[in-house]
Request: fold
Amino acid sequence: MPGSFESVPAKDVARREEYKELARLGETLVPTIFLNEDYAPLRKYITGRQKSLTSEGGADRARNRYAVGIGVGLALLDQETKKFAKAGKPVDEEVLLGSKRAAAQAALSVLPEFDALAKEAGVEG
Reply:
């Protein structure tokens, strides 16, 4: 599973330093992307790109770009799943998993080109 998209109380998300400002929202649910960093295709990409992601934090930035890409896919899938549920239509879990994997592959497929553009522009590498 490449990751998940869930609504989580803001106070729980705020435990991470970069989201501490959300603490004031308390129990308010915020959409949250959980990235599975052990997802084999992501690990393979990061491992294969280690030499070209030479700047400090390069692998983290690549992981973050992947998270944005997969996050959009997971958010849209969540939205569609809720529409189906509201209409009383079941969602096949195998189809949902396949859709999540497809979103992950789509995000991963554009990262090498993005890396090359970033390096050419001198903003990373």
The longest strand covers residues 3-9.
